[in-house]
Structure formats: structure tokens, C-alpha cells
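Appendix B, Record 12. Input sequence as logged:
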Amino acid sequence: MYADRTNHLKEEGAYAVLAKAQALEASGREIIHFEIGQPDFETFSNISLAGMRAIANGRTRYTPPAGTPAFRQAIAMDASARRGIEIAPNQVVVSPGGKPNIFFPTLALVNPGDEVIYPNPGFPTYEAMIGVAGGVPVPVPLVEENDFSFDLDVFDKLINEKTKLIIINSPSNPTGGIIPKADLEHIAAAAKKYDAWVLSDEIYARIVYDGMEDAPSIYALSGMDERTIIMDGFSKTYAMTGWRLGYGIMPKELAERVGLLLTHSVGSTAEFAQYAGLEAITGDQEQVTKVVAEYERRRNVIVDGLNSLNGISCQKPQGAFYVFPNIKATGKTSDEFANWVLEEAGVALLPGTSFGKYGEGYLRLSYANSIENIEKAIEKLRVLLG
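Logged structural output:
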């Protein structure tokens, strides 16, 4: 009855756990939420005011599918400055949220039977969109021993003449790992050798710690601008999840094709949201600095707390707002552990297998939560683990 292209799709694990957690809350239980990757800060006031002014001024109409010229120009200037590269406005495609600039470039590049390399554990949308495009998903494990960067030995064995696209995510959801420049250079050399494209998910590029300014981008490496798509957006850095505002950066010819896919699907991104985004990247960035510093404080607290628990070890992530602790010493599977702590301790988190088979033995916790709640959850887990 239904088209085969949707048969592989399934609900994201975060929403399933959230539903269970909310059912427990409805029964009167106190639940501490670490399952959703959503900033707990309000959208910065200058951004919200810009959006409201835009609505008051009638900025509620259609725009060109790829975005307003002023907004695309501002994104190009900001991205050029931050990544040390030269980007033209006609290489920018604005979208309602970041996912269209993962999904549509994949549709524009991947034919049925083409192979697509992607990180595992990784954002579930990668595998979902590969299947919709008719591509062959080829997972590469992210290994703890390599700070959750690509396992390059496995990568070298998997890439071949059939590889059309390589997806990378740095900083990573779910691990918080950052791909070092040397590894990016290795991936870039392989992409050139096999004439493959690279889709670089850089939505967390500004949420980095320990004195780092931005995570390194593969786009900035020599010769990679002609075969790389950057996906970025406003949800994480500016706490704008509900505004649905993202963008892609790619070669002009591909941008035109992605613009056509936008034309025939969503039409365009909300005009007032683009005005809010314009304020986000051209306005004062002090609030971003403060928020990242607060995330770093929370990271330190949750990592120290998890490492103090029996059977758990946790690397200190370099970016994003997730930890990916190892629970293999507990003797429980990821699913067993996640269900156990939700039911018994009221702590909602995700099993690593929500992000692929190589996530077994791990959990993902989002520390977009208060230090008070982090400390409370650690003590609940301490009681449970003994």
C-alpha cells in the first residue's frame, strides 16, 4: 500500500523516551530530563525583539526559496570570517531548520545504489535520509579510544568508487567529540581520490570548550570547497529551536538544485524568522560567549559526577552539550540501563543504540540542564548503582 522508501523510517529515540518520561510525570513522578538536545536558555532577547519587530512591520510574506538576499549575504560574511574561507551569497541556502540542508543535498547527489558513509553512533536523520534517497548506508564507527573521531582504518576499508557522499559531524551528536584537523585532512584526501562529496554537519561548531574558538571545518581545507556542503543553523548556538531556521553552504550549482527542492517542498522559510536570524549573527555575541561558558561549567560537573559512579566512565567532550558515558562495566545493555534508571531513579536519558549499533554500551545525556538538576541526577544514580 505504501511506498518502499518510507519502510525503514522510525521514530527518533529521544521522542520515545520523552513520551515515557512525560507519562511518568503525569502519574506524579518527578523526572529529571537529559534526553532532549534542546538548549534550556530562552532565545536571546535582542533576537526575539527583532523577530517581533519584523512581524509588526509585516515581514510575514513569501521570500525567495533560498532566503532573502540580505540574510544570505550576512550568513556568507559570517561564515567566511569564522571559517577563514570565502563564501558568496549565492552559495547559501536558507531552510526551515537544519534538516532540509541535510536531506535535500542528499537527494540532489545520491542515486539509488550509491554508497554513503556516515558516523555511527550518529544523528539518526543521516541514515533515514540515505534510505529515502535510495542510497546504501555505510556506517563508520566512532571510537572512544580516538576521542570519538572516525575510525580511519575502517573508513579506509569502506570508501571505494561507489562512495558518493561522506557525512561528518563535528562537534558530534551524540558524543561531543571533535574531529581533529589531521583526521579531516585524511578524510578530505580520500574524498578527492574517490571523487566523493562531503556533507559536514557543523550545527555545534561554536559550542566548543577549553579555549577553542570554533571547531575546524573540512570546507576550509584546500580544494574541499568544490565538494563540501556545510549544514549549520541557529537552534543550538542561539537557543532558537522553535524558530526553525537553518542554512547550507555549498557550490553554486548544487545550491541552485537544493533551492529548487525547497521551491517544490516547503516553498520558503518564514520571513520574520530570517530577520531574527539576521539579528542573531550581526548583533552582540556576548550572550553566546556566556552560554558556552555555562555549558562548559555543566560539562565539568556532569563528567566528574559520572566518573564518580560505580561501573561508569566518561570522557570529557570537547564540544556540543552531550556526554556519552561508557556503562559496559555495569553488565547492562544500553536499553536495559536507560529503562532501569528512568523507572527506578526518575532520570530520563538515551541509550547509545538510539544513535546506531556502535552505540551499544553507552548512554547519551544532554547537559542543557541546570547544575542543580545535574547534581540531583548524579546522586539518584549513585543510590541506584550502589
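The CA atoms of residues 327 and 375 lie 19 Å apart.
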